[in-house]
Amino acid sequence: MYDLGLKELREYRSETTCPGDFDSFWETTLSETRQFSLDASFMRSGHDVTVFNRTRAKADEIVALGARAAATVAEACQGEAVMTMLAGEPCDRSGT
Q1: Is 51 in contact with 62 (CB distance < 8 Å)?
Q2: How far, in Å, CA of 57 to CA of 69, rounded?
Q3: pTM > 0.70: yes or no
């Protein structure tokens, strides 16, 4: 589910500019994001939720709420729908 067509998604370029201190910016952003539980309403709505994180301990909170931890990305992608969160702004892609 997305709100842009495929052509627009391929051509999309964020208007976000790289902050002077990217590490500080990213830490603040993650801190703000962590205030919201990732269980959202998926599990409350009866959906099976499988999570994967390269650092397993970071998935423990949502696993404690009833999600299943996947050992690999491939395992996590076996459900009906897949949602991902990847850092992807141009300024966090060194060398590109």
Answers
A1: yes
A2: 10
A3: no
Which of the 8 DSSP states describes residue 43? T
Question: Rounded CA gap, 41 and 15, in Å?
Answer: 30
Supply the pLDDT for residue 14. Answer: 78
Stated length of the chain: 96
The identity of residue 42, as a single letter, is: F
What would the pLDDT profile of 17-51 be if each residue is shown by its tens digit?
Answer: 777 887 888 888 888 877 876 655 677 777 888 98
Of the candidates 16, 19, 37, the one whose C-alpha atom is nearest the C-alpha of residue 28 is: 19
